[in-house]
């Protein structure tokens, strides 16, 4: 049932809404979490997002018979509060306005499918498959501390390995000893090679060694971890630029993918970080972590729309298998189911 399914003729005077109910959150499922399919897991993770997003909208429109300016304002506020982001919200509201002008009112189902369709056009489709190239495919992972870079690298390494690919990790977050150790643990856990140097060594030098060793050993995929310091854009740009350049010396065109990791649970901060990183370097994909249990999953929509960079992976937990290839359709279905 659609989100507004229980509100009959929401914007139709003759048929005033009598009740509004959103699907109840069911908490009785944690014991069977491991048995859940990817889609079910996504649905679980997005429950809070769905509830906050649509509860707010529902409250806004409940009992209203026409869409007037004040309701549009309220819908705008509800969308912004759902972490979709201001720019993207304004886009949606503009389209809604012109639609309402044309048709005078929308009923509940129409508003429902309007939003579903609009959100569908705002999210970019994403392709996760790695192209077949003779050199190792190099993924450089960037993002601020704590967003889940190293964890995502571990999960990704596992995913690629299970596809039969030979993976090499590069511990270029040399800023903290713990960061190198953490990646070593992941490499052992997954059973893949890792290239590292001592803490404090030059990250570009680690990246260089990693790509060189991967090439010499016929690896399929290289994943480079980087430090998450964000002093300022100039430093960031310089450091990331240096790492990129040295890798490009070993393999033309590398890094093939610069993956920005963002923590969905930080909402607007994630959008702010995307602004800073895209200003500092070319970012080609996004991994959005911690979508499990956050109410801020709407941030997927804003990020995808504003930065025109595909969300390629989503993190839905801390476990090794809790990384999903992002599917726009599954995401929309989960939110609007
Ligand atoms: N719930 C949840 N926690 C995550 C996810 N990804 C990472 N984490 C946790 O976030 C914390 C920071 O992760 P880490 O990989 O060290 O971040 P880094 O500093 O960017 O490398 C760790 O406790 C991870 O277990 C996710 O998708 N969901
Ligand atoms: Mg790390």
Bound molecule kinds, no repeats: guanosine-5'-diphosphate, magnesium ion
Helix content: 40-55%
Q: Globular, elongated, flat, extended or rod-shaped: what is the shape?
A: elongated
Q: Are there runs of 5+ residues with pLDDT below 50, and where?
A: 1-33
Query: Can you list the strand order of the major beta sheet?
Result: 3-2-4-1-5-6-7-8
The number of strands is 8
Estimated radius of gyration: 22 Å
Strand content: 5-15%
* Helix-strand category: alpha/beta
In N-to-C order, the SSE pattern is HHHHHEHEHEHEHEHEHEEH
Residue-averaged pLDDT, rounded? 84
Question: How many helix segments?
Answer: 12
Walkthrough of the structure:
It is a single chain. The chain has helices at 38-45, 47-61, 69-81, 86-103, 108-122, 149-162, 177-190, 203-216, 233-250, 268-280, 299-307, 328-336, and strands at residues 137-142, 167-172, 193-195, 221-226, 257-263, 285-289, 311-315, 323-325. The protein is an alpha/beta fold and 337 residues long. Strands 3-2-4-1-5-6-7-8 form an eight-stranded mixed beta sheet, sandwiched between helices. β7 (311-315) and β8 form a beta hairpin. The chain is elongated and about 70 Å long. It binds guanosine-5'-diphosphate and magnesium ion (MG). Residues 149-150, 173, 179, 182, 225 line the site of magnesium ion.
Q: What is shown here, in short?
A:
This protein is α/β, with parallel strands linked by helices and 337 residues long. It has helices at 38-45, 47-61, 69-81, 86-103, 108-122, 149-162, 177-190, 203-216, 233-250, 268-280, 299-307, 328-336, and strands at residues 137-142, 167-172, 193-195, 221-226, 257-263, 285-289, 311-315, 323-325. The chain contains 12 helices and 8 strands.
